[in-house]
Automatic annotation (TrEMBL):
Membrane-spanning ranges: 12-32, 39-60, 66-88, 95-114, 126-151, 172-201, 213-235
Keyword DNA repair: no
Signal peptide from the UniProt entry: none
Family: Belongs to the FliR/MopE/SpaR family.
Domain of life of the native organism: Bacteria
BP GO annotations: bacterial-type flagellum assembly; protein targeting
Functional summary from the UniProt entry: Role in flagellar biosynthesis.
Topological type in the membrane: Multi-pass membrane protein
GO terms for cellular component: bacterial-type flagellum basal body; plasma membrane
Major subcellular location class: membrane
Pfam families listed in its UniProt record: Bac_export_1
Gene: fliR
UniProt name for this protein: Flagellar biosynthetic protein FliR
């Protein structure tokens, strides 16, 4: 009996309890948390990984379903899962910041499209960066590494003692600064060229006021930006791999 006259199979209750942390991580994490991923797929994956956790760890869920201790345990499990997914989501926000910097300098900041990852309107260049980062994340098996860290998190943060410390929460907050650093570094090659172009166009407009700034500067910024993106994208792709590794390392430091 698990409270209020309710009874449930102990194995099923343990599986449902384990799925809280896994499901919360999938809701907050990139790729798994995309709106294009059906809820049934997330629940199925959470259940499959939950069976793996039960097979490799000794999980003892709370004795009662409806109890204050159970609510606290569920909240702690959800907090750990959301923190793991949120830290990785912070790293994935860096390309969006870089796209804002480059797009405004190129004059295409107004070009928006629906992002399939979150279902919201985002800059077209940012959507391109986001898709490339997602493909790189999958190419280096980042999704499998994330699943592995979720499973191994039960060794360091077992059920019943999964509350995050103040130092861990501070590390999550400080890791938010990495988004701005990585975004600026990602946009630096193209942004520097566009800055130099804007300085040249500014000097031309001062020396020859008859030149229309919008008629000359905007097409030049767009052309130089496209060429610079084509030339700098191999280096930007390498840095995107660094962003993926830093995000996974931040998740690892959170639970290990």
């Amino acid at each position: 009996m698990l409270g209020f006259g309710l009874s449930i199979e102990p194995q099923l209750w343990a599986l449902i309890f384990v799925m809280v942390r896994i499901g919360a991580a999938f809701v907050a994490a990139p790729v798994f948390g995309a709106v294009t991923v059906p809820v049934m797929v997330r629940v199925t994956l959470s259940g499959a990984i939950g069976v793996l956790v039960l097979g490799t760890h000794s999980v003892v869920p709370p004795a009662q379903v409806f109890g204050f201790a159970t609510f606290l345990a569920v909240a702690s499990e959800a907090l750990v899962g959301l923190a793991m997914g949120f830290v990785l989501q912070i790293a994935f926000a860096a390309p969006m910041l870089a796209s804002e910097i480059i797009g405004i300098s190129m004059g295409i900041g107004f070009a928006n499209a629906i992002d399939p990852q979150n279902g919201r309107s985002s800059p077209a260049l940012g959507q391109f960066f986001s898709i490339m980062l997602t493909l790189l994340f999958l190419s280096v098996n980042g999704h499998l590494v994330l699943v592995e860290m979720i499973v191994k998190s039960y060794d360091v943060l077992p059920v019943g003692g999964a509350w995050l410390s103040a130092a861990q929460l501070k590390n999550i907050a400080f890791f938010g600064g990495y988004t701005f650093t990585a975004g600026l570094l990602l946009a630096l090659p193209v942004g520097f060229l566009l800055l130099c172009l804007n300085l040249v166009v500014g000097m031309l407009s001062r020396s020859a006021p008859a030149l229309n700034l919008f008629a000359v500067g905007l097409p030049a910024s767009l052309a130089v930006g496209v060429v610079a993106l084509a030339m700098a994208f191999p280096a930007m792709g390498d840095f995107m791999l660094v962003i993926v590794r830093e995000g996974l390392a931040a998740v690892e430091s959170l639970v290990f």
